[in-house]
Amino acid sequence: MFRSLIGVAPVLFGIAFVSASTGLVATTVGVRLGLEAVPPHLVSFVLTGFPFGFLLGCLFGRQVIGAVGPVRAFAAFGGIATACALGLALVDDAYVWTLFRAGTGFCAAGLYTVTESWLNARATVATRGAVLAAYMITDKLSYASGQSLVASADPMAPTLFMVAGLLLSLCLVPVALARVEAPRVGGANRYGLRRLMRVSPVGVTATIACGAANSSLSMAGPTFASGIGLSTGEIATFMTLLFIGGLTLQWPIGWASDRFDRRSVLLGALVATLIVALAMAGVGRSAFALYILGFAFGGAAFVIYPLAVGHANDFIEPDQVVGVSAGLLLCWAIGSVVGPPTASFLMAWAGPSALFLFIAAVYALAALFTLYRMWVRRAPPTAQQGPFVPMPTTPAVADLNPRSAPDAGDAV
């Protein structure tokens, strides 16, 4: 296992810089939008930019990688993303920012696709779970670290965007110097929405809800915190604790989902997130209370997507795992495009706390639908459930899922 992790260390270092830059820019943009009192329709444009670009990257990024090769594509995506980050420091126009954010989202999807394909090519059946866990930890901790950097400089100055561009440029170094052969990236075999609904209505519903709610918090959370009067340092701490909570509680909740009806655990996570969101809507300006609730929210909310994917995978054969997981990720991406602009308009109409009322409403609907499906469809025996698997980022990561076909990860 140690040798497998050493073999993927260069690409993990590379994606760590990407995640840190992504977290830094996302939080800085949200803080700036709040401090500058940008009109709601422009806020919705800017917040939609990254998830929309990411969705396009999931759909078309593999064609770019297949045309020029993974290393050249990684360099191109990294270079364009660097230019977009630096462009935010040069231009203070919401429409231009939207284009830059969309470009960053597209390139981020491409960078993650190359990374995850590389990890899959180096993993074996025995080490695939360890490699995926190392990737999850690297991605989440780096993203949280990037968010914490917001407190290091004035968010109204161009410094933070310049630091983000610097981090993105550094992602190219370990990959360019890697002494292992780059993987081939094939096309994604995705399931369509109608086919996914036949496999797992709960999986589809929970995934779309997760994309809409969690992306709204990731994108508009800094704007909310700025709107209630938190300082830049308090905003950075709040956003960082969200992701630390999401990382910390993945495995305990996953352990429970392997031993009980996974829908019951999913329902519990949905209800817990709903309750915490309502508490956050009414807590006021108490930074300490928001820290605690933010950690709890991240722990419950960020496990919903892998629980939904795991539940869907319980009803399919191993050779269908990649297609179902890739299709569900696109459902998540669609939700992430719809959620942030909706949340921003509600915040403009009813105040910053409307963000968490929106999130609570989304998860309430998902919880009710899950409860209904538990009544009309019997769960598979617990012994037949596959293991819980944390599921980040792009369709490529589905190849790393230990549930997929036994020979899918043997290429080394």
Please summarize what this structure is.
With 412 residues, the chain is mainly alpha-helical. It has helices spanning 2-35, 40-68, 70-90, 94-122, 128-148, 159-170, 172-176, 193-199, 201-227, 232-248, 250-259, 262-282, 287-301, 304-313, 321-350, 354-376. The chain is globular and about 55 Å long.
Describe the structure.
There is one protein chain. This protein has 412 residues and is mainly α. The chain folds into two domains: 1-178, Growth Hormone, Chain: A, CATH 1.20.1250; 191-390, Up-down Bundle (Growth Hormone, Chain: A). It is built from 16 helices and no strands. It has helices spanning 2-35, 40-68, 70-90, 94-122, 128-148, 159-170, 172-176, 193-199, 201-227, 232-248, 250-259, 262-282, 287-301, 304-313, 321-350, 354-376. Helix 10 runs parallel beside helix 13 and helix 12 runs antiparallel to helix 13 (287-301). The radius of gyration is 20 Å and the shape is globular. Mean pLDDT is 84; it is low at 405-412.
Break the fold down into its secondary structure elements and pairings.
Elements: H1 2-35, H2 40-68, H3 70-90, H4 94-122, H5 128-148, H6 159-170, H7 172-176, H8 193-199, H9 201-227, H10 232-248, H11 250-259, H12 262-282, H13 287-301, H14 304-313, H15 321-350, H16 354-376
Helix pairs in contact: 1-4, 1-5, 1-6, 1-9, 2-3, 2-4, 2-15, 3-4, 3-6, 5-10, 8-9, 9-10, 9-14, 9-15, 9-16, 10-13, 11-12, 12-13, 12-14, 12-16, 14-15, 15-16
